[in-house]
Specification:
By secondary structure, this protein is of the alpha+beta class. It is 50% helix and 20% strand. Helix 5 packs across helix 6.
Amino acid sequence: MFGVSMKLNSAKTLLAIGTATLFCFGTAWAGAITPEMQQKIDAYKAKAATMAADPALIQAVKEANTKGPIAGLDNAKWEKLADNSPEASEMVNNAAGKLLTKWMNEDAKSLNKLVLTGKQGNRFAFTSKPATYMSKDKAHFSESFAGKNWQMKETQPDPSTKIETVQITVPVKDGSNTIGVLLLSLTADNLRN
């Protein structure tokens, strides 16, 4: 009986330690957005809207929409591609990818990734390979494609860069028509300072 009690107490202790560790780890990687952070995020939404209105960006989205997604490429196949695969490299090195990289480098302390998505939900330009290729079923795409700005509700690690971020998206419009979505991944530590 004593041995069973010891095992039960040991199991409870391990569970308590595991829960405490999970809680500590979770708070280090996801966190609330303070009012001060929100002010900075709102300023980046305005900056993102200006970026999304750039004529070169709009032209790139129109051209990508004409081409459409890469035939046969889905999220499962995308995940297996190396960051420097020909498909991913093309999306960093095309004209829109170079423009996004230029903007990110101008504000490298705050921006850790930019991604441009066409009307079918396919990513076609970015600064570094995102975790998914197709994003049509994601809230950040659907809300911004409906004409609204979107943001994460809390800080989280970016799926591909692993940097704690707040992601925001804005619609890319041609006149009054939404034709794509621009995503900015904001570095959380910079938002806190």
